[in-house]
Amino acid sequence: MRILFGLYMPSSGSFVVVLRSMLRWSAELLHVVLLASLCAVLVLPDRANAQESRPSAQPKSIPTLESLPHTALPAGRFNSWCGESDRYLLDTNGQLSAYDADGKVTPIAVSPGRGLQCRNDGRQLGYVYNKSVLRVDIASGDSEWVASYEPPKRKNAVISFSPDFKSVATSVPLNFTSPAGSLKAVLVEDKSKGGKTEDPEFIKWSEDGAKIAVVYATSVEILDANGGKLGSMTKPESGYAYDGWFERDSGH
Predict the structure, then answer these.
(1) What span, in angstroms and rounded, lies between the C-alpha atoms of 129 and 111?
(2) Contact (Cβ atoms closer than 8 angstroms) between residue 122 and residue 108
(3) Which long-range contacts (CB under 8 A, 24 or more apart) does 188-193 make?
(4) pTM of the predicted model, to two decimals?
C-alpha cells in the first residue's frame, strides 16, 4: 500500500531544485539537437537540386483547439471534479454550478470555496459551514442539516466524508440530527509527540472508503474505515499537505 501527497515546502527550495534540473536537462538536449542538426547539414544533398528532381510536398493543415469538438464555458474558476463521472464544479461570479460532459448546467445554492466534497456518484455535495455539516442533493437543490459541532478553541475542525457519504471522519465530536440517518462518525484524535500536541491538519479517504490518511505536523497516519491504525510515516514539519491520494493496490 502506498499513498502519495503533494507537499508545499516554503523554505526548502524544492521547486527551485526541480527547475534547475529541468533547465540543465534542457540545455543538454539542446546541445544534442544542435549537434545533430549540424551533422545533417553536412551530409544532406544540395537543396536546390533536390527540389528540381521531385515535386514539393504540400504543407498539412494543423487543427486548432477551436476546430475540435468542444462546449463553450463561461469565464469562471474551476472548483473541483464532482464524483467519478465527468461532472465538475465551476465558480462563475460567486455562483457555484455543476457542469456535465453533455453541457448540462445545474446551479447549486452553496457558496464556492474549499472543503466542498462530492459523493462518488456525483449526485450529492457535502460541506461544512458555520458549525454545521450539510448535505445537498445537486439535482433538486434540497439541503439537509446532518450534524453540528462546537469548534475547538486552538485549532480548526477537519471533517471529511467517505466517498459513498456513509461515514465521516472528523477531528471534533459531531452531534447528528435525524436526517443523518445511519451516517457513521470516525473520530480522529490529536496525537502527542515530544511533549507537544499535534492536531489533525488534513484528512483523505481512499477511493474505496477502506482507508483514511490523517496528516499531522510531523507525520501521516493510515487508519482503517473504523479508525484503527494501520501504519504511519514521517512528514517534514515545514511543509503542509494540500491534497493526497492512495495508489491502487497492484496485487503484488
Answers:
(1) 10
(2) no
(3) 188/158, 188/212, 188/214, 188/223, 188/227, 191/216, 191/219, 191/221, 193/218, 193/219
(4) 0.69
Q: What is the pLDDT of residues 66-111, one digit of tens each?
A: 676 666 677 888 888 999 888 999 998 888 999 998 888 899 988 7
Cα three-residue angle 247-250-252, rounded to 5 degrees: 125
Place of cell 500536541: 197
Locate 39 and state its grid cell: 551533422
Closest CA to 209 of 100, 110, 99, 117: 117
- Contacts of residue 189, Cβ cutoff 8 Å, sequence gap at least 6: 171
Q: 181: left (phi > 0), else alpha (psi -120 to 50), else beta? A: left
Neighbours of 191 (CB within 10 A): 17
Q: Residue 180 is placed in which grid cell?
A: 443523518
Q: CB under 8 Å to 125, separation ≥6 — which residues?
A: 82, 108, 110, 116, 117, 118, 119, 135, 136, 138
Helix (H, G, I), strand (E, B) or coil at 41: helix
Q: How far apart are CA 84 and CA 226, in angstroms?
A: 24
